[in-house]
Protein backbone atom coordinates (compact mmCIF):
# COMPACT_ATOMS: atom_id res chain seq x y z
CA UNK A 1 0.00 0.00 0.00
CA UNK A 2 2.80 2.36 0.94
CA UNK A 3 4.77 1.49 -2.18
CA UNK A 4 1.77 2.09 -4.44
CA UNK A 5 1.06 5.41 -2.74
CA UNK A 6 4.67 6.48 -3.10
CA UNK A 7 4.64 5.50 -6.75
CA UNK A 8 1.50 7.58 -7.36
CA UNK A 9 3.05 10.58 -5.61
CA UNK A 10 6.27 10.16 -7.56
CA UNK A 11 4.36 9.88 -10.83
CA UNK A 12 2.34 13.02 -10.01
CA UNK A 13 5.50 14.93 -9.14
CA UNK A 14 7.20 13.85 -12.37
CA UNK A 15 4.10 14.78 -14.37
CA UNK A 16 3.99 18.25 -12.78
CA UNK A 17 7.73 18.77 -13.34
CA UNK A 18 7.51 17.72 -16.98
CA UNK A 19 4.46 19.93 -17.53
CA UNK A 20 6.19 22.97 -16.03
CA UNK A 21 9.31 22.21 -18.06
CA UNK A 22 7.22 22.10 -21.21
CA UNK A 23 5.48 25.37 -20.33
CA UNK A 24 8.80 27.09 -19.67
CA UNK A 25 9.97 25.94 -23.08
CA UNK A 26 6.99 27.12 -25.12
CA UNK A 27 5.91 30.03 -22.92
CA UNK A 28 5.05 33.21 -24.78
CA UNK A 29 2.89 36.31 -24.26
CA UNK A 30 -0.30 34.35 -24.90
CA UNK A 31 0.35 31.86 -22.08
CA UNK A 32 0.35 33.48 -18.65
CA UNK A 33 0.32 31.53 -15.39
CA UNK A 34 -0.68 33.37 -12.23
CA UNK A 35 -0.43 31.50 -8.92
CA UNK A 36 -3.12 31.83 -6.23
CA UNK A 37 -0.64 33.85 -4.20
CA UNK A 38 2.83 34.11 -2.70
CA UNK A 39 4.47 33.07 0.57
CA UNK A 40 6.53 35.70 2.40
CA UNK A 41 9.55 33.97 3.95
CA UNK A 42 11.85 36.75 5.19
CA UNK A 43 13.69 36.63 8.52
CA UNK A 44 14.33 32.88 8.32
CA UNK A 45 17.42 32.98 10.57
CA UNK A 46 16.39 35.93 12.73
CA UNK A 47 15.96 34.60 16.30
CA UNK A 48 13.90 37.41 17.84
CA UNK A 49 11.46 38.12 15.05
CA UNK A 50 8.45 38.35 17.39
CA UNK A 51 10.15 41.02 19.50
CA UNK A 52 11.07 42.96 16.37
CA UNK A 53 7.52 42.84 15.01
CA UNK A 54 6.12 44.03 18.36
CA UNK A 55 8.59 46.91 18.16
CA UNK A 56 7.35 47.74 14.65
CA UNK A 57 3.76 47.61 15.93
CA UNK A 58 4.72 50.24 18.51
CA UNK A 59 6.39 52.27 15.75
CA UNK A 60 3.19 52.08 13.72
CA UNK A 61 1.02 53.31 16.61
CA UNK A 62 3.41 56.23 17.24
CA UNK A 63 3.43 57.03 13.52
CA UNK A 64 -0.35 57.17 13.24
CA UNK A 65 -0.95 59.07 16.51
CA UNK A 66 1.81 61.66 16.07
CA UNK A 67 1.07 62.38 12.41
CA UNK A 68 -2.69 62.68 13.02
CA UNK A 69 -1.94 65.04 15.92
CA UNK A 70 0.34 67.09 13.67
CA UNK A 71 -2.32 67.32 10.95
CA UNK A 72 -4.96 68.26 13.54
CA UNK A 73 -2.83 71.07 15.02
CA UNK A 74 -2.16 72.55 11.58
CA UNK A 75 -5.79 72.17 10.47
CA UNK A 76 -7.40 73.92 13.46
CA UNK A 77 -4.99 76.88 13.57
CA UNK A 78 -5.51 79.31 10.70
CA UNK A 79 -2.14 80.94 11.39
CA UNK A 80 -0.51 77.72 10.19
CA UNK A 81 -2.38 77.67 6.88
CA UNK A 82 0.76 78.53 4.92
CA UNK A 83 2.56 76.78 2.03
CA UNK A 84 5.21 75.40 4.39
CA UNK A 85 2.73 73.68 6.68
CA UNK A 86 0.67 72.46 3.73
CA UNK A 87 3.83 70.60 2.68
CA UNK A 88 4.19 69.32 6.26
CA UNK A 89 0.61 67.99 6.18
CA UNK A 90 1.39 66.29 2.88
CA UNK A 91 4.42 64.60 4.44
CA UNK A 92 2.38 63.51 7.48
CA UNK A 93 -0.30 61.86 5.33
CA UNK A 94 2.37 60.07 3.28
CA UNK A 95 4.09 58.88 6.47
CA UNK A 96 0.87 57.27 7.72
CA UNK A 97 0.15 55.57 4.40
CA UNK A 98 3.74 54.36 3.93
CA UNK A 99 3.83 52.48 7.23
CA UNK A 100 0.25 51.29 6.75
CA UNK A 101 1.29 49.59 3.51
CA UNK A 102 3.73 47.23 5.26
CA UNK A 103 3.60 47.04 9.07
CA UNK A 104 0.07 45.56 9.47
CA UNK A 105 0.88 42.86 6.92
CA UNK A 106 4.19 42.16 8.70
CA UNK A 107 2.27 41.65 11.95
CA UNK A 108 0.00 39.14 10.19
CA UNK A 109 2.89 37.39 8.47
CA UNK A 110 5.53 37.10 11.18
CA UNK A 111 3.61 37.44 14.45
CA UNK A 112 0.51 35.40 13.57
CA UNK A 113 2.43 33.09 11.17
CA UNK A 114 0.06 33.68 8.24
CA UNK A 115 2.54 34.28 5.44
CA UNK A 116 0.28 33.62 2.43
CA UNK A 117 -0.64 36.69 0.36
CA UNK A 118 -3.15 36.37 -2.54
CA UNK A 119 -1.85 37.39 -5.95
CA UNK A 120 -3.98 40.53 -6.42
CA UNK A 121 -3.43 41.64 -2.83
CA UNK A 122 0.30 41.21 -3.35
CA UNK A 123 0.27 43.53 -6.36
CA UNK A 124 -1.87 46.03 -4.46
CA UNK A 125 0.56 46.12 -1.55
CA UNK A 126 3.46 46.44 -3.95
CA UNK A 127 1.82 49.43 -5.64
CA UNK A 128 0.94 51.34 -2.47
CA UNK A 129 4.29 50.73 -0.81
CA UNK A 130 6.41 51.98 -3.68
CA UNK A 131 4.03 54.82 -4.56
CA UNK A 132 4.21 56.25 -1.05
CA UNK A 133 7.93 55.55 -0.77
CA UNK A 134 8.46 57.65 -3.91
CA UNK A 135 6.09 60.32 -2.58
CA UNK A 136 8.10 60.43 0.66
CA UNK A 137 11.18 61.34 -1.34
CA UNK A 138 9.36 63.96 -3.42
CA UNK A 139 7.70 65.48 -0.34
CA UNK A 140 11.14 66.17 1.13
CA UNK A 141 12.06 67.90 -2.13
CA UNK A 142 8.88 70.00 -1.89
CA UNK A 143 9.90 71.11 1.61
CA UNK A 144 13.34 72.01 0.22
CA UNK A 145 11.62 74.15 -2.43
CA UNK A 146 9.75 75.99 0.33
CA UNK A 147 12.99 76.75 2.20
CA UNK A 148 14.73 77.73 -1.05
CA UNK A 149 12.08 80.33 -1.92
CA UNK A 150 11.80 81.63 1.65
CA UNK A 151 15.55 82.26 2.02
CA UNK A 152 16.73 83.06 -1.50
CA UNK A 153 13.69 85.07 -2.65
CA UNK A 154 12.10 86.47 0.53
CA UNK A 155 10.57 89.49 -1.22
CA UNK A 156 8.98 87.32 -3.92
CA UNK A 157 7.79 84.55 -1.62
CA UNK A 158 4.16 85.59 -1.98
CA UNK A 159 4.57 85.35 -5.75
CA UNK A 160 6.49 82.08 -6.12
CA UNK A 161 5.20 80.13 -3.13
CA UNK A 162 1.50 80.55 -2.47
CA UNK A 163 -1.01 78.02 -1.20
CA UNK A 164 -2.26 77.53 -4.76
CA UNK A 165 1.23 76.94 -6.16
CA UNK A 166 2.11 74.55 -3.32
CA UNK A 167 -1.16 72.66 -3.84
CA UNK A 168 -0.39 72.32 -7.56
CA UNK A 169 3.15 71.07 -6.88
CA UNK A 170 1.89 68.48 -4.40
CA UNK A 171 -0.88 67.42 -6.78
CA UNK A 172 1.58 66.95 -9.64
CA UNK A 173 3.88 64.77 -7.51
CA UNK A 174 0.93 62.60 -6.45
CA UNK A 175 -0.32 62.14 -10.02
CA UNK A 176 3.18 61.42 -11.32
CA UNK A 177 3.98 58.77 -8.70
CA UNK A 178 0.51 57.22 -8.87
CA UNK A 179 0.61 56.92 -12.67
CA UNK A 180 4.18 55.66 -12.97
CA UNK A 181 3.83 53.09 -10.19
CA UNK A 182 0.49 51.94 -11.62
CA UNK A 183 2.25 51.09 -14.88
CA UNK A 184 5.17 49.40 -13.08
CA UNK A 185 2.75 47.23 -11.10
CA UNK A 186 0.44 46.50 -14.04
CA UNK A 187 3.23 44.97 -16.13
CA UNK A 188 3.78 42.41 -13.37
CA UNK A 189 0.61 40.72 -14.64
CA UNK A 190 2.48 39.85 -17.86
CA UNK A 191 4.79 37.52 -15.95
CA UNK A 192 4.19 33.80 -15.51
CA UNK A 193 5.06 32.11 -12.24
CA UNK A 194 5.55 28.40 -12.82
CA UNK A 195 8.39 27.85 -10.33
CA UNK A 196 8.63 28.86 -6.70
CA UNK A 197 6.16 31.28 -5.11
CA UNK A 198 8.31 31.98 -2.03
CA UNK A 199 9.23 35.68 -1.72
CA UNK A 200 12.29 36.33 0.42
CA UNK A 201 11.43 39.73 1.85
CA UNK A 202 9.25 41.32 4.51
CA UNK A 203 6.42 42.12 2.07
CA UNK A 204 5.53 41.61 -1.60
CA UNK A 205 8.68 43.30 -2.80
CA UNK A 206 8.99 44.20 -6.48
CA UNK A 207 12.35 42.65 -7.38
CA UNK A 208 12.04 39.44 -5.31
CA UNK A 209 8.64 38.81 -6.94
CA UNK A 210 9.58 39.33 -10.59
CA UNK A 211 12.72 37.20 -10.14
CA UNK A 212 10.39 34.24 -9.50
CA UNK A 213 8.94 34.52 -13.02
CA UNK A 214 9.77 31.86 -15.61
CA UNK A 215 9.50 34.15 -18.62
CA UNK A 216 11.44 37.27 -19.60
CA UNK A 217 11.38 40.00 -16.94
CA UNK A 218 13.89 42.41 -18.50
CA UNK A 219 11.26 45.19 -18.69
CA UNK A 220 10.47 44.83 -15.00
CA UNK A 221 14.17 44.80 -14.17
CA UNK A 222 14.71 48.00 -16.18
CA UNK A 223 11.85 49.76 -14.40
CA UNK A 224 13.16 48.60 -11.02
CA UNK A 225 16.58 50.05 -11.86
CA UNK A 226 15.03 53.28 -13.13
CA UNK A 227 13.00 53.62 -9.93
CA UNK A 228 16.20 54.70 -8.17
CA UNK A 229 15.51 58.00 -9.88
CA UNK A 230 12.71 58.54 -7.35
CA UNK A 231 15.45 58.77 -4.73
CA UNK A 232 18.35 60.27 -6.66
CA UNK A 233 16.30 62.96 -8.44
CA UNK A 234 14.71 64.59 -5.36
CA UNK A 235 17.93 64.16 -3.36
CA UNK A 236 19.91 65.97 -6.07
CA UNK A 237 17.34 68.79 -6.06
CA UNK A 238 17.65 69.06 -2.26
CA UNK A 239 21.46 69.21 -2.43
CA UNK A 240 21.39 71.91 -5.13
CA UNK A 241 18.78 73.90 -3.21
CA UNK A 242 20.85 73.91 -0.05
CA UNK A 243 24.00 74.79 -1.98
CA UNK A 244 22.24 77.93 -3.26
CA UNK A 245 20.80 78.56 0.22
CA UNK A 246 24.29 78.42 1.78
CA UNK A 247 25.64 80.81 -0.86
CA UNK A 248 22.75 83.20 -0.17
CA UNK A 249 23.23 82.97 3.60
CA UNK A 250 26.97 83.67 3.29
CA UNK A 251 26.16 86.90 1.47
CA UNK A 252 24.02 88.16 4.34
CA UNK A 253 25.72 90.94 6.29
CA UNK A 254 24.13 90.28 9.68
CA UNK A 255 25.18 87.25 11.71
CA UNK A 256 21.74 87.12 13.32
CA UNK A 257 20.13 86.97 9.87
CA UNK A 258 22.39 84.07 8.93
CA UNK A 259 21.55 82.16 12.09
CA UNK A 260 17.83 82.83 11.68
CA UNK A 261 17.87 81.59 8.08
CA UNK A 262 19.82 78.44 8.91
CA UNK A 263 17.67 77.69 11.96
CA UNK A 264 14.57 77.38 9.79
CA UNK A 265 16.30 74.60 7.82
CA UNK A 266 17.36 72.41 10.75
CA UNK A 267 14.23 70.26 10.99
CA UNK A 268 14.18 69.64 7.24
CA UNK A 269 17.85 68.66 7.14
CA UNK A 270 17.24 66.18 9.97
CA UNK A 271 14.39 64.58 8.01
CA UNK A 272 16.54 64.37 4.86
CA UNK A 273 19.36 62.68 6.79
CA UNK A 274 17.00 60.22 8.52
CA UNK A 275 15.40 59.15 5.23
CA UNK A 276 18.24 59.13 2.69
CA UNK A 277 21.34 58.07 4.64
CA UNK A 278 20.06 54.58 5.69
CA UNK A 279 18.61 53.79 2.25
CA UNK A 280 21.70 54.90 0.32
CA UNK A 281 23.94 53.05 2.80
CA UNK A 282 22.04 49.80 2.25
CA UNK A 283 22.29 50.14 -1.53
CA UNK A 284 26.02 50.91 -1.36
CA UNK A 285 26.67 47.96 0.96
CA UNK A 286 24.72 45.70 -1.37
CA UNK A 287 26.67 47.02 -4.35
CA UNK A 288 30.20 46.71 -2.96
CA UNK A 289 29.78 44.02 -0.28
CA UNK A 290 28.17 41.03 -1.97
CA UNK A 291 28.42 38.72 1.05
CA UNK A 292 25.88 40.62 3.17
CA UNK A 293 23.47 38.31 5.00
CA UNK A 294 19.99 38.32 3.35
CA UNK A 295 18.22 38.57 6.71
CA UNK A 296 20.39 41.53 7.70
CA UNK A 297 19.54 43.23 4.43
CA UNK A 298 15.79 42.67 4.91
CA UNK A 299 16.05 43.90 8.51
CA UNK A 300 17.97 47.02 7.46
CA UNK A 301 15.53 47.81 4.66
CA UNK A 302 12.50 47.43 6.91
CA UNK A 303 14.04 49.72 9.53
CA UNK A 304 15.12 52.29 6.94
CA UNK A 305 11.58 52.49 5.54
CA UNK A 306 9.51 52.20 8.74
CA UNK A 307 11.44 54.43 11.17
CA UNK A 308 11.46 57.82 9.33
CA UNK A 309 7.63 58.15 9.22
CA UNK A 310 7.65 57.69 13.00
CA UNK A 311 10.39 60.26 13.64
CA UNK A 312 9.26 62.96 11.19
CA UNK A 313 6.33 64.36 13.24
CA UNK A 314 8.40 64.24 16.44
CA UNK A 315 11.18 66.27 14.80
CA UNK A 316 8.72 68.86 13.52
CA UNK A 317 7.02 69.08 16.91
CA UNK A 318 10.32 69.67 18.73
CA UNK A 319 12.17 71.83 16.20
CA UNK A 320 9.40 74.02 14.75
CA UNK A 321 8.42 76.80 17.17
CA UNK A 322 4.90 77.19 15.79
CA UNK A 323 4.12 73.49 16.17
CA UNK A 324 5.86 73.31 19.53
CA UNK A 325 3.69 76.06 21.00
CA UNK A 326 0.47 74.40 19.81
CA UNK A 327 1.54 70.99 21.13
CA UNK A 328 2.32 72.43 24.55
CA UNK A 329 -0.97 74.29 24.51
CA UNK A 330 -2.80 71.07 23.69
CA UNK A 331 -1.04 69.27 26.54
CA UNK A 332 -2.01 72.11 28.89
CA UNK A 333 -5.63 71.77 27.80
CA UNK A 334 -5.61 68.00 28.41
CA UNK A 335 -4.15 68.45 31.89
CA UNK A 336 -6.58 71.15 33.03
CA UNK A 337 -9.97 71.20 31.34
CA UNK A 338 -10.42 69.66 27.89
CA UNK A 339 -13.62 71.67 27.31
CA UNK A 340 -12.22 75.04 28.31
CA UNK A 341 -10.76 77.23 25.54
CA UNK A 342 -7.12 78.11 25.97
CA UNK A 343 -6.47 81.81 26.69
CA UNK A 344 -4.12 83.55 24.33
CA UNK A 345 -1.97 84.58 27.31
CA UNK A 346 -1.26 80.94 28.10
CA UNK A 347 -0.22 80.19 24.55
CA UNK A 348 2.14 83.15 24.52
CA UNK A 349 3.61 82.16 27.88
CA UNK A 350 5.15 79.01 26.41
CA UNK A 351 7.85 81.02 24.66
CA UNK A 352 8.67 84.49 26.00
CA UNK A 353 11.43 85.08 23.49
CA UNK A 354 9.05 84.45 20.62
CA UNK A 355 6.53 86.83 22.19
CA UNK A 356 9.09 89.63 22.33
CA UNK A 357 10.19 89.01 18.76
CA UNK A 358 6.60 89.12 17.52
CA UNK A 359 6.06 92.36 19.44
CA UNK A 360 9.13 93.92 17.86
CA UNK A 361 8.03 92.82 14.39
CA UNK A 362 4.58 94.28 15.04
CA UNK A 363 6.00 97.63 16.17
CA UNK A 364 8.31 97.78 13.16
CA UNK A 365 5.44 96.93 10.85
CA UNK A 366 3.22 99.62 12.34
CA UNK A 367 6.02 102.16 12.07
CA UNK A 368 6.53 101.38 8.38
CA UNK A 369 2.80 101.49 7.74
CA UNK A 370 2.42 104.88 9.45
CA UNK A 371 5.42 106.25 7.61
CA UNK A 372 4.01 105.09 4.29
CA UNK A 373 0.64 106.64 5.19
CA UNK A 374 2.25 110.00 6.04
CA UNK A 375 4.24 110.04 2.82
CA UNK A 376 1.16 109.20 0.76
CA UNK A 377 -0.84 111.96 2.48
CA UNK A 378 1.89 114.51 1.86
UniProtKB/TrEMBL annotation:
Keyword annotations from UniProtKB, A to Z: Cell membrane, Disulfide bond, G-protein coupled receptor, Glycoprotein, Membrane, Olfaction, Receptor, Sensory transduction, Transducer, Transmembrane, Transmembrane helix
UniProt-recorded name of the protein: Olfactory receptor
Subcellular localization(s) per the UniProt record: Cell membrane
Keyword Disulfide bond listed: yes
GO cellular component: plasma membrane
Source organism (scientific name): Seriola dumerili (Greater amberjack)
Gene Ontology terms for molecular function: G protein-coupled receptor activity; olfactory receptor activity
Domain G-protein coupled receptors family 1 profile: start-end pairs: 66-316
Entry's transmembrane regions: 49-73, 85-107, 127-146, 158-183, 228-249, 269-292, 298-318
Membrane-topology annotation of the record: Multi-pass membrane protein
Family per similarity comment: Belongs to the G-protein coupled receptor 1 family.
Principal location: membrane
Matching InterPro entries: GPCR_Rhodpsn, GPCR_Rhodpsn_7TM, Olfact_rcpt, OR51/52/56-like
Amino acid sequence: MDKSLMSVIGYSHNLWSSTMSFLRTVLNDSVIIHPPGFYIIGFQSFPYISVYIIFLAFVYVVTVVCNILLVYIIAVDRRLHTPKFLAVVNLAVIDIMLNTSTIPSMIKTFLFKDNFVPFNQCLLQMYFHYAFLALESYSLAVLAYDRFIAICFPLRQNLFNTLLIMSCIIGVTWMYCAGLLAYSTAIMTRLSFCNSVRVFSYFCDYAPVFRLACNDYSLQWSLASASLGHLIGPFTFIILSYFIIIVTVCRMKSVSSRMKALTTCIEHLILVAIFYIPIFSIFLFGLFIRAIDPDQRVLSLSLAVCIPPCINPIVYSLKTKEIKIRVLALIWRMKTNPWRPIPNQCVEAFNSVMKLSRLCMYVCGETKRNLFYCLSES
